[in-house]
Amino acid sequence: MSRSTALKKSPIQSVSNADHKGIYIVSPSSAVAEEKVLTRGVQRLEKMGFKVVLDRDVLARDQRFAGTDSQRLAVFDRAVKQKLPIVMASRGGYGVTRLLPHLNWAALANSGKRFVGQSDFTAFNLALLAKTGLVSYAGPTVCYDFGAAKTEILTTEIFGEVMRGELEILSFESEKADPIDCRGILWGGNLAMITALIGTPFMPKIKGGILFVEDVGEHPYRVERMLNQLAQAGILGKQKALILGGFTEYKLAEHDRGYDLNAAIEFIKQTVKIPVIPGLPYGHTPMKVTLPIGAKVGVATEDGIAHIVLDEHLDEM
Amino acid sequence: MSRSTALKKSPIQSVSNADHKGIYIVSPSSAVAEEKVLTRGVQRLEKMGFKVVLDRDVLARDQRFAGTDSQRLAVFDRAVKQKLPIVMASRGGYGVTRLLPHLNWAALANSGKRFVGQSDFTAFNLALLAKTGLVSYAGPTVCYDFGAAKTEILTTEIFGEVMRGELEILSFESEKADPIDCRGILWGGNLAMITALIGTPFMPKIKGGILFVEDVGEHPYRVERMLNQLAQAGILGKQKALILGGFTEYKLAEHDRGYDLNAAIEFIKQTVKIPVIPGLPYGHTPMKVTLPIGAKVGVATEDGIAHIVLDEHLDEM
């Protein structure tokens, strides 16, 4: 993987040099399992130069959740009112979809905060886009990424670059990528969460977009079933490209007899004729890029390399 | 569980006494794992008095599927053309959703066959209802139910009674059932397959219906997420009742801290205020009733017992 960066303002939202230096940490999904992991993540972020403030309920717990629904809703109210520009999830898990009907979308839109998270947080990323058009970020979480015993340096560096608006082009190896050179709205995240929004008011209606997906612990037949639902719902066929992140922690069985993730993707390609770009370093993996959800980007492939162009000078599409 | 039966014609489709005696067995989903299990299932059905004919590709195999998509599509063409009135799936698994856009719905509707299956087959049950209005059946499969080393006698008896149109009322223990006395279209099946159809042309648009659901190997938070999607998509709130079948083969974790299936259902009840009737003997369990999907039924609860009335004399709803 390589990346082109420049010391310039973000293509997404203009922020001053100071503005991107503060992170407010929230727990909108499952409860933080180990406080020491969160603490280690905070220390890493501080070493990177970020000012970090923990929401007061960041360690709250109610059953499997990081507090009751009311508590987790109040988290967003506080996140909007506080001063730091970045709001990062402590972790994923489950819980955001319960909150969606009750969030104050106007306040979230007006806040201009940069919300960052992954997995369950995909539901928030996409609902925010659907309800307000505000760009937010698929990227690392405090516990999983910054709090890991051994951190993936590229994950943390790219997060910093994207927050500072320095990342112009993200390039990654993509064997067997379909030839493409296009522009569109980048959207996606965790596939199970994307499909969990189909038919609801929280699913963005995006045509000519660039959809990226990843998942964990889902057998390829379930990945196929989810992508097939997106196809049959008329969503996948309206996108210009499908970018595949990591699909990890599943087990093939003897009775699969050669059926695997490639077979699933081949079926989807035959079904909707969409260009597919594998190899995005994003998923439930230590290596993960930070990507703007809802931003216009360019995507091109050549010689086994794919490029995502996060550039403010893209023409209107 | 108890049931009231009568020697009368089906409330669903009128068949002669002879007509209900033949079963054509097909494999539209995953490949049959063991031929001897299928054979044992056929023998049990024959002992019950059914004439049984195996589709020629019932043991076909392509990767994890019971043949290629073309092969499995041709199965339905043959099932429609042959003479026997009942078409039963050999097993579930995965594969039906791949076929849905290519099925000949007019031929299926005109056939008047009684299609029976479960799990992956739910996608066919519901798509058939959406596309044609034809009633089909959630019920046993050849391998899982009739081919089991030890068969659940009630499962096989009730299947026979429903096929003969003898079953009038199905009653089952339902502790903590909400009070209800209503009528509506009965629909549902496997929850993962129901949600996999949301947003597609294969999802029936049913208002005032009675939805029954079951699933296997899904943690309660995933069951909740699926039911919540049905709620947020405006589907669950339009139903008169939610009937819960079996939810089996999942493991709660220490970090669930008391969150369980009851907690999930309580959340859903708070969200959509729908009467919930637990305890339906249907699911990935040896004991399973056979239910008409798309038929008008009555549902009532009293004193810890729920009744599903499969009666042709129900008034128009």
Question: What's a quick, concise take on this entry?
Answer:
By secondary structure, chain A is an alpha/beta fold. Chain A has helices at residues 35-47, 69-81, 96-99, 105-111, 122-132, 142-146, 153-163, 191-196, 220-232, 261-272; strands at 2-5, 22-26, 51-54, 86-89, 114-117, 136-138, 167-173, 181-190, 210-216, 241-248, 276-277, 291-293, 296-302, 305-309. Chain A contains ten helices and 14 strands.
Question: What secondary-structure arrangement, pairings included, does this model have?
Answer:
2 copies of one chain form a homodimer.
Chain A: E1 2-5, E2 22-26, H1 35-47, E3 51-54, H2 69-81, E4 86-89, H3 96-99, H4 105-111, E5 114-117, H5 122-132, E6 136-138, H6 142-146, H7 153-163, E7 167-173, E8 181-190, H8 191-196, E9 210-216, H9 220-232, E10 241-248, H10 261-272, E11 276-277, E12 291-293, E13 296-302, E14 305-309
Parallel strand pairs in A: 2-3, 2-4, 4-5, 5-6, 8-9, 9-10, 10-11
Antiparallel strand pairs in A: 1-7, 6-12, 7-14, 8-13, 13-14
Helix pairs in contact in A: 9-10
Provide structural commentary:
Two copies of one chain form a homodimer. By secondary structure, chain A is of the alpha/beta class. Helix content of chain A is 30%, strand content 23%. Mean pLDDT of chain A is 94; it is low at 7-17. The A-B interface holds A 30-31, 33, 61, 63-65, 94, 97-98, 100-101, 195-202, 221, 225-226, 228-229, 232-235, 255-259, 263, 267 and B 30-31, 33, 61, 63-65, 94, 97-98, 100-101, 195-202, 221, 225-226, 228-229, 232-235, 255-259, 263, 267.
